């Protein structure tokens, strides 16, 4: 962490974004604005890379109003053009078709909760296809390492601009870029259900996870928890297996 230089990292990522889009003969970038720090950082970097060819999608789906306000705040701060796609009705209708007796909101059911990022994924790719844009994902190295993302949801993207950065580094980059204080300081959450936070669901703090990723250091309980998450989420980090492959 002591060698992390946010200014240099900003230039590196922006140059990489431009190169990827140009080489693949695409026209710009689309990013989902969740109101969280990761999406704020990615959106700010995409705006710097393509100031005139970048779209932010705000996709509320029975979301916390604070997250919606923070997404709008980020868009205003970095002058990002946005489109709001209201997913409440689609989510409710789809869930009623899949399972009319699904658990009511407020109870944790991952099959139900994961519909939200999967609907958002479809929305992002729809607009990307229409505009000949790239879907820029917002996942970081910490989450990728332990599989803390929804398979074929927020894990389904074209490129991952900050996937090489642990959460602590993302925070430092957010400070450098000028992400709104409210977004930087709030507890990270995927917003899958009321009161959900990343750290409570993972069972480790980001500081503990980042330290283990970068140095291999952790007490036995934390190490066991992290290694367990890495093992059980291995399938998320690979293409579907084929006969003849392990």
What would the keywords be for this entry?
246 residues, alpha/beta, 51% helix, Rossmann fold, 4-stranded parallel β-sheet, single chain
What value does the Rg take, in angstroms? 18 Å
Distance between the termini: 35 Å
Strand order of the largest sheet: 3-2-1-4
Instruction: Label the overall shape.
Output: globular
Our count of helices gives: 12
Unreliable stretches, pLDDT < 50, 5 or more residues?
A: none
Derived structural class: alpha/beta
Instruction: Encode the helix/strand succession as letters.
Output: HEHEHEHHHEHHHHHH
Looking at the chains present, what oligomeric state does this protein adopt? single chain
- Fill in the CATH topology: Rossmann fold
Mean pLDDT: 93
CATH superfamily membership: HUPs
Query: What is the CATH architecture annotation?
Result: 3-Layer(aba) Sandwich
CATH class group: Alpha Beta
What percent of residues adopt helix (DSSP H or I)? 40-55%
What portion of residues belong to β-strands? Answer: 5-15%
Number of strands: 4
Number of domains: 1
Largest sheet entry: 4 strands, parallel
Give a topology summary:
Blueprint: H1 6-23, E1 28-32, H2 37-49, E2 54-58, H3 65-77, E3 82-84, H4 88-98, H5 110-113, H6 115-131, E4 133-135, H7 141-146, H8 167-177, H9 181-185, H10 198-202, H11 206-215, H12 220-232
Parallel strand pairs: 1-2, 1-4, 2-3
Helix pairs in contact: 1-2, 1-8, 2-8
How would you portray this structure in words?
The chain has helices spanning 6-23, 37-49, 65-77, 88-98, 110-113, 115-131, 141-146, 167-177, 181-185, 198-202, 206-215, 220-232, and strands spanning 28-32, 54-58, 82-84, 133-135. It is globular. The protein has a 4-stranded parallel sheet with strand order 3-2-1-4, with helices on both faces. The protein is of the alpha/beta class. Helix 1 crosses helix 8 (167-177) and helix 2 crosses helix 8. It has one domain (6-237): 3-Layer(aba) Sandwich (Rossmann fold). Strand 1 (28-32), helix 2 and strand 2 form a beta-alpha-beta unit. It has 12 helices and 4 strands.
């Amino acid at each position: 962490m002591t060698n992390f230089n946010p200014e240099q990292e900003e230039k590196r990522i922006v140059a990489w974004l431009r190169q990827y889009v140009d080489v693949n003969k695409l026209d710009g970038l689309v990013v989902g604005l969740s109101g969280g720090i990761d999406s704020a950082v990615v959106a700010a970097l995409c705006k710097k890379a393509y100031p005139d060819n970048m779209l932010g999608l705000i996709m509320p789906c029975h979301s916390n109003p604070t997250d919606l306000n923070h997404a709008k705040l980020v868009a205003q701060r970095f002058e990002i053009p946005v489109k709001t796609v209201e997913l409440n009705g689609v989510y409710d209708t789809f869930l009623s078709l899949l399972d009319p007796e699904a658990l009511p909101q407020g109870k944790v059911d991952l099959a139900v909760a994961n519909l939200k990022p999967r609907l958002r994924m479809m929305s992002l790719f729809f607009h990307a296809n229409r505009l000949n844009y790239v879907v820029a994902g917002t996942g970081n190295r910490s989450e990728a390492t332990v599989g803390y993302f929804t398979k074929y949801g927020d894990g389904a993207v074209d490129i991952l601009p900050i996937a090489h950065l642990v959460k602590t580094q993302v925070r430092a980059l957010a400070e450098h870029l000028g992400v709104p204080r409210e977004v930087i300081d709030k507890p990270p959450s995927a917003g899958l259900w009321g009161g959900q936070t990343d750290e409570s669901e993972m069972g480790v703090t980001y500081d503990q996870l980042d330290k283990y990723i970068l140095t291999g250091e952790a007490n036995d309980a934390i190490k066991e928890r992290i290694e367990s998450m890495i093992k059980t989420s291995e399938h998320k980090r690979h293409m579907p297996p084929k006969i003849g492959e392990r």
